[in-house]
Amino acid sequence: MGCKLFLVRHGETLWNHALRYQGHADISLSDLGIEQARALARRLKNQRFAGFYSSDLRRAYDTARILAEPHGAEVQRMAELREINFGDWEGLTREEIINLYPDISRKWWSRPLETRLPGGETLNEVADRCVRALQIIAARHPDDQVLVAAHGGSIRASVARLMRMDLNQYWRLRQDNAALTIIELFGSDRAQLLLFNDTCHL
């Protein structure tokens, strides 16, 4: 048996609703996002978790805090679990990005693994830091269940890396707000995906 990670994308924010790229911008949950997190908390209230972790951005931390409340647990924040750093794109919509950054946006959407966003990261860097954080968490809690609240991009990049997918195709992995993904880690190099993007609680 390995460490079973319950990966949760944060609830909706106003920027999610407006289809704006958030990245490292510290945007709060919307009222709907809070309700989404509460719905998932009800679903998971009878599970046993050895720990609760989240990105240090408030939308992920507040989601994790709501999920941890029925268990009387504290949430440990890890900056390594943050969303992709979108740099100069943060706060913009896809259409605005295409108009302002036509060349680099085409490169990013076709080859994100090594394409550096203006003022931001490559997808390879995101996958490296996020998987490293998950491996640290799993090493702390062997043979236990742990909940980790993070972001759409960081979860998709982590799952793609752990499943040994081509990260240039990571966009094929959908992550809805407050969705649950479960992946089990066996040591540092073996993983099994048990559940992906489940939103039945919503």
Automatic annotation (TrEMBL):
Active site: H10 (tele-phosphohistidine intermediate), E83 (proton donor/acceptor)
Positions with a binding annotation for substrate: R9, H10, G11, E12, T13, L14, W15, N16, R59
Marked site: Transition state stabilizer: H151
Isomerase in keyword set: yes
Keywords, ordered alphabetically: Glycolysis, Isomerase
Keyword flag Acetylation: no
Alphabetical list of Pfam families matching this protein: His_Phos_1 (PF00300)
Molecular functions (GO terms): phosphatase activity
GO cellular component term, pick one: cytoplasm
UniProt cross-references to PANTHER family, sorted A to Z: BROAD-SPECIFICITY PHOSPHATASE YOR283W-RELATED (PTHR48100), HISTIDINE PHOSPHATASE FAMILY PROTEIN-RELATED (PTHR48100:SF1)
Name of the protein: Phosphoglycerate mutase
Organism: Desulforudis audaxviator (strain MP104C)
Source lineage: Bacteria, Bacillati, Bacillota, Clostridia, Thermoanaerobacterales
